Every structure is written in structure tokens, then in C-alpha cells.
Amino acid sequence: MTRSVIAGTGGYLPVRALTNDELAEAYGLDTSDAWISERTGIRRRHMAAPGETTADMAAAAAREALAQAGADAAEVDAIILATATPDSAFPSTATRVQEKLGIRQGFSFDISAACTGFIYALGVADSMIRTGHCRSALVIGAEAFTRILDWTDRGTCVLFGDGAGAVLLRAEGGEGDRGILSTHLHSDGRHGDILQVEGGLVRMAGREVFRHAVAKLASAVDEALAANGLAQADVQWLVPHQANRRIIDAMGRKLGLPAERVVVTVDRHANTSAASIPLALAEATRDGRVARGDLVLMEAIGGGLTWGAALARF
Length: 314
Ligand code: UT7
Description:
Elements (H helix, E strand, L loop, with lengths): L2 E10 L3 E4 H8 L5 H8 L3 E4 L6 H16 L8 E5 L10 H8 L6 E5 L5 H14 L5 E8 L10 H4 L5 E10 L6 E9 L7 E4 L2 E4 L1 H22 L9 E4 L4 H10 L11 H4 L6 H11 L8 E8 L3 E8 L1
Parallel strand pairs: 4-5, 4-6, 11-12
Antiparallel strand pairs: 1-7, 2-3, 6-7, 8-13, 9-10, 12-13
The structure holds oxa(dethia)-CoA (UT7).
The site of oxa(dethia)-CoA (UT7) has 20 residues, from helix 2, helix 6, helix 7 and strand 12.
EC number: 2.3.1.180
Pfam family, one: ACP_syn_III_C
Organism: Roseomonas indoligenes
């Protein structure tokens, strides 16, 4: 049976980082470090430099994923890139990355599923590998989210940051149990207006989204475990979408995981939308926390509403 194995991970954060106080000062916001950190866990975020594109960040993350996998451009035959902040409607950000990496074969396209984008991209890539459309795929989440924020709306502009994360998936046969075990994708367009881009800027009914988040993530996680005949106790790492520390902690408690088994970056990255999970994966593999053989559970919710979960054995 063909499986999609995560052969490498990579992440990129723009150089410029702003603390909550620096952000409030820079944009003249009526907010405080105390409010932001208590309600969200966020302490700082990175911001793309002028002229630094989503594709630039994505390519940097992809290069690290390729290097970690010991792969070169000639091996990649698909690029699937999740973003809510593409550099243009077309060409897709994925094809721009293809060009930047010198990849001359295969296909590339973008996926739009807001903060759930990486889980969606992983699901699509895994299906395409299993059905023989490609033998390897770069799966990327990349966002220049600070470009679509309303800097007069303290309820949203303090929450997001920029960055990119990537994984290289490789087809592997045989009896091994490494790879993506399953992905579970959901959406419900009835709730489109509680988290949307309107007039080019992000609008969010935060409390409403919060309410949906806890219930929908819990159900996606249960679905993923049940589909694989696994129990909560089998999960070694939770790598959740990083929107709010309170949501992350609630999911960790639900799974009965000790805090040190939950990968948290929201304090330093804020919410990087589709980039948050692959950025967290990159960090946790780079520092040796997530190791070969570990069972990793990923989950996310975002505009759409879209939500989902994925289970992978590293
Ligand atoms: O990634 C996609 C998924 N997104 C999420 O999962 C986000 C889910 N939602 C959340 O994380 C939380 O709802 C927020 C962090 C967005 C907001 O936290 P909250 O505890 O739900 O606060 P709230 O929106 O209900 O606002 C409470 C108060 C309000 O004041 P009043 O009306 O009670 O006087 C807001 O005006 O906090 C005020 N407020 C702020 N005060 C200082 C809102 N933003 C700020 C701010 N600084 N930045």
C-alpha cells in the first residue's frame, strides 16, 4: 500500500518581530500587553518586510523541508500551497514557488481554506500520492496576513502574523506504518460571515468563532482517532492551529495530554493562518521533540467555516 511519508519539514519567519507593546505603539492601538496575552497567549508576531512576498516566504520554508529530506528540486513533482494571502489571483503562489525553486516538472496550485488550509492541502496531496498522480509533493502553508488587517480594529489586528511552513511528502510502499494515516476535512458555509475578508480586510466575530472552534475541533479529533482505531492515549504530540492559547489548552486537556506534549508557537508567532501548523511542525522537528515513529495529531479551524484534523506517524 502506498503511503505519504513526511520526509522533511521547514519553516520561515520574517526578520521583523513586534511585541504587543511595540504593535500598540506603532499603530496607535487602544490595547495592552495584558489584554492580548491573557485572552490569546500572544506576546509577539513577525511581519513581512516591504516587498517580501508570500511566495518568498513559502520558498524559504520549502528549501528547508527539501534540505531536511535530502531532496533536490528534480525530485518534486507537485506543489500544493495553502494561503489566504496569495501574491496575485494568478499566477498562483504555488507556481511562483515552483519558479523560485527551479522546479521544471510536475504541477502546482493554491488551496483556499483560510486557517484550515494546511490540513486541506495535506489531505489533497496525500490523496494524489496514494492514487499515483505524483510521487512527491511539497505541501506549504504561507501567509502575509498582516497585509489584510484593519489596523483600526483592535479586535483582529493584534491576533495575526506572517510566516510560512512546509513539508515534503514522499510516496513509500511496503508494510511500514509511517506517513499520513488519514485526513478529515469539513466546511459549513452557513457560518461564512463570522470570519471573512470584506473589502480586502479581515472581519471576525471572535466570540462566535471561539464557540464553534472548541466543539468542531473536538469532533474532528474524535473522528480522526476513531478512523484509525486509536485512542487518545496513543497520541504523542498535538500540533494544533495556533489561534488562541485557550483553545489550544482546551484541546490538550480533552486529549489528556501533558502540556509538554502540545506544540505551542502562538506566543511568538501569533496566528499565521495556514502557516501555523507547518511552522509548529518545523520547530518541533528541528529541536528534536517530534522524532521518527511519533504519532502526531493536527487540527485547525478557520474562515468558511472550514475545519479538520490529520493524523501522521513521523
Ligand atoms: O484562526 C481562525 C480561528 N480564529 C479563532 O479561533 C479566534 C477565536 N476567538 C478568539 O480567540 C477570541 O474570541 C478573541 C481573542 C478574538 C477575543 O477574545 P474574547 O475573550 O472573546 O473577547 P471579546 O471579543 O468578547 O471582547 C471582550 C472585550 C470587548 O470589550 P467590551 O465590549 O466587553 O467592553 C472588546 O471590545 O475586550 C475588548 N477588546 C479588546 N480590549 C483590549 C477586544 N479586542 C481588544 C484588544 N485590547 N485588542
